Amino acid sequence: MKSACLIPCYNESARLDISRYKKLISQYKEIDFYLLNDGSTDNTAERLVELSKGHDNVFVEDYKVNKGKAEVIRASMLSLINSEYDYIGYLDADFATPFEEFDRLLQITKQYQYDIIFGSRVKLKGWQIERNPIRHWFSRIVLTIVDSLFRLEIYDTQCGCKIFKRSVITDCFTDSFVTKWLFDIEVFIRYTRSTKSANIMEMPLVKWKEIKGSKLKLSDFLQVPLNILQLVRRYGRRN
């Protein structure tokens, strides 16, 4: 089964661990890497092109204008609808979720044929989940509200490690997203409302570490109540 991993990058030049990327690209030759430059204003695009040289499983998509993570992922997912890939996922460029975890989830979904499998930052005994406490509890409050409105029954919608069967991409990504920060929630709303029998798996991650230099700003958090209202207006509550 052919698989692809999308990695959106915006002004990541200073944080790109080139040696780590090259090691992973060489180790996971059965996976195609799509490095998405989201209109970066630094030399991220050049570094991604440099990284792709000599590797048949690396492709650079250079979006000249900054679209934001949600729209870059959506556009790239849609561009692969008619590809040969059975599964297409995305992962954050900083590897807060180690790529080894992405591959673990990929092997699980290949075995059990889930429509969607995604990482969950659940703190289980002995597992290495390192989150900022304030962001963690803010996220818990938001997701509790979201679950009361949309009945998703998902613990962690926001982890940046998700893999989709190609056949569900149309249902999940065709329309532009209403929100920027909560686009993952929109993906789940769309999917659950497109099928009578959801075939998804929320898989606890063994490792996850918050990386300094997050693109999220205080203003993004302040917009969350408005974002939730926008979701209700667009999709309606689910009883």
Q: Summarize this, please?
A:
The chain has helices at 18-27, 44-52, 69-79, 99-112, 133-150, 169-173, 183-194, 218-222, 224-235; strands spanning 3-9, 31-38, 58-63, 87-91, 116-120, 128-130, 161-165, 200-204, 207-209. The protein is α/β, with parallel strands linked by helices.
Task: Describe it.
The chain has helices at 18-27, 44-52, 69-79, 99-112, 133-150, 169-173, 183-194, 218-222, 224-235, and strands at residues 3-9, 31-38, 58-63, 87-91, 116-120, 128-130, 161-165, 200-204, 207-209. The protein has nine helices and nine strands. The mean pLDDT is 93. 40% of the residues lie in helices and 20% in strands. The protein is α/β, with parallel strands linked by helices. It has one domain: Alpha-Beta Complex (Spore Coat Polysaccharide Biosynthesis Protein SpsA, Chain A).
Describe the structure using short key phrases.
single chain, 239 residues, alpha/beta, Spore Coat Polysaccharide Biosynthesis Protein SpsA, Chain A, 7-stranded mixed β-sheet, two-stranded parallel sheet, 9 helices, 9 strands
Mean pLDDT: 93
Structural class: alpha/beta
Q: H/E series, N to C?
A: EHEHEHEHEEHEHHEEHH
Tally of separate domains: 1
| Share of residues in helices | 40-55%
Query: In angstroms, what separates the terminal alpha carbons?
Result: 38 Å
Could you give a short account of the major beta sheet?
7 strands, mixed
Strand tally, please?
A: 9
> What low-confidence regions span 5 or more consecutive residues with pLDDT below 50?
none
Q: What's the total helix number? A: 9
**Do you know the CATH topology?**
Spore Coat Polysaccharide Biosynthesis Protein SpsA, Chain A
From the spread of the alpha carbons, the general shape counts as globular
Name given to the CATH homologous superfamily: Spore Coat Polysaccharide Biosynthesis Protein SpsA, Chain A
Bin the strand percentage.
Answer: 15-25%
Computed Rg:
17 Å
Q: How are the strands of the largest sheet arranged?
A: 3-2-1-4-7-5-8
CATH C-level = Alpha Beta
CATH architecture: Alpha-Beta Complex
